[in-house]
Amino acid sequence: MKKSLMLYLFLLAILMNIFTYMFYSREVKFGQERYEKTTKKLRDSINLVSTQLSEADYFSLVHNENAQNYFDNSASGGKVILYEKLIPVVTEKLLDLNSNPNGNPYTGQDKIDNKKFIINKVKILNHRWIIADYSNGQLWGEVLLKYFVNDDESIDFEVNQSLLYQK
Question: Checking phi first, is residue 132 left (phi over 0); if not, alpha (psi -120 to 50) or beta?
Fold first, then answer.
C-alpha cells in the first residue's frame, strides 16, 4: 500500500512537471510571437509616418535643393545665404509684424469687428513662396506670400493671394 502510494505520488509529480514545462514553454513561445507581431506593427507604423512626413515636407525649403541653390551666389562672386539661418529670420520678421495695431499687413485682410488678423503659422515652401495661416480669433484664413531677400539682407514680402474661410 505504501509502495503504491509512493508510485502514484511519483507519477503525479512527473505529470505536474510535464504540464508545467509545457505551459511555460508555450507561454514563452506565445510571448515571442506577440513581441514579433507588435514589433512588426510598430515598424510598419514608423514607416508609414516617415512616408507621410516625407510627403508633407516635399514642399519645403529644407528639402528643396534647387531652392537652396538659389541662395548660393558664390559662383558669381556674391554672398552665400544659408537657408538654415534664413528660415527662422524670415519667419520671425513676418511674425513680428503681428504687433501692428491694425494687424499683420501680409494677411491680406483688414480688421473685422475691431479684431485684427495675425499670422499664426508659417511654412517657407521654397526660395520665393511662403504659406501662412492667420486668424482674428473668430475667422481663419490662409495667405500665399512672395518673399525677397535683398542685397542688404533685408526681407520684403508681397501678398500673392489670401483666402478667408467662412464661419
Answer: beta
Q: Please tell me the distance from the alpha carbon of residue 82 to that of residue 76, in angstroms, as a whole number.
A: 16
Q: What is the pLDDT of residues 71-123, one digit of tens each?
A: 876 556 667 778 888 899 999 999 999 999 989 999 988 888 889 999 999 99
Return d(Cα 167, Cα 165) in angstroms, integer: 7
Residue-level length of the chain: 167
Kind and range of the H or E run holding 24: helix 2-56
Per-residue burial over 87-124, b if 16 or more Cβ lie within 10 Å, else e, is beebbeebbeebeeeebbebbbbeeeeeebbbbeebbb
Provide mean pLDDT across the span 5-24.
88
Grid cell at residue 47: 514607416
Three-class SS state of 73: coil
